[in-house]
Model the fold of this input.
Amino acid sequence: MYKSKRKNKKVLLFLSPILIIMLLGISMLATNRKVGRVENILKDVTMMVNKIVMAPFTSLNKEKNQTQTESYLIQKNVNSSLEKEIQELKESLELNKTLTEYTPINATILSRNKSYWFNTITIDKGSSSGIETNMAVITKNGLVGKISKVSDNSSEVKLITSDDIHFKVSVAIKTNEIDHYAILNGYDKETGLLKVTGIDKTTEIIRGDVVLTSGLGEKFPGGIYIGTVEEIENDKYNLSKTLYIKTYQNFNDIHYVTVLKVKA
Done:
């Protein structure tokens, strides 16, 4: 008998908040009547009970909403990155329409050594795709390097930003429709400018002149865009000029390239 009473008390304690909520809901339907002091107390108690009962669920909902928001932002960033890469690939493919004398071989960057970030990149095309050493490698922004090593299914590209003193590219500076020949063989990481040497001090060159590949002594063609003259500096003996070239290629952000192969 005693156990039965205790059980009834527990049931009553459990049902009391629910009954209070129901009664309060019914009372609230009569919005025009005056609310008594007792009912106000009941409202406060009900609200407190409701907060205690619903607290775990509210916390879970907040956490769920936060997780969903974070997931959305991450997915948005992923989609944005993919769209950027797809656009870059499309622009690379557009090069195929203009390079009629060469067979363009489109490739994707496989890896890049962090210790030699501006020296080389590895692409996913090799001798099985017709790649050979010294072929020009370009993007929509112009020349980025040339093939330095080749294996069956991958190749190493020596970038024009390399600090290899033996790496040189013959270039032509266009000034008033006149070509002035020089050598590109350096890069300033601080300014992001390429270095061109071998210009006679009497040569008339101005800021903004266009720099292209000359095609002299190379496997790759002349006329590939490199950049424009940003700075002109005389050497310490005042015998020649050094040019600093601004390129529109972001060498920190390369995903796709095109290798130019001479048509057979």
Q: What stands out?
A: Residues 9-15, 26-33, 72-76 have pLDDT under 50 and may be disordered.
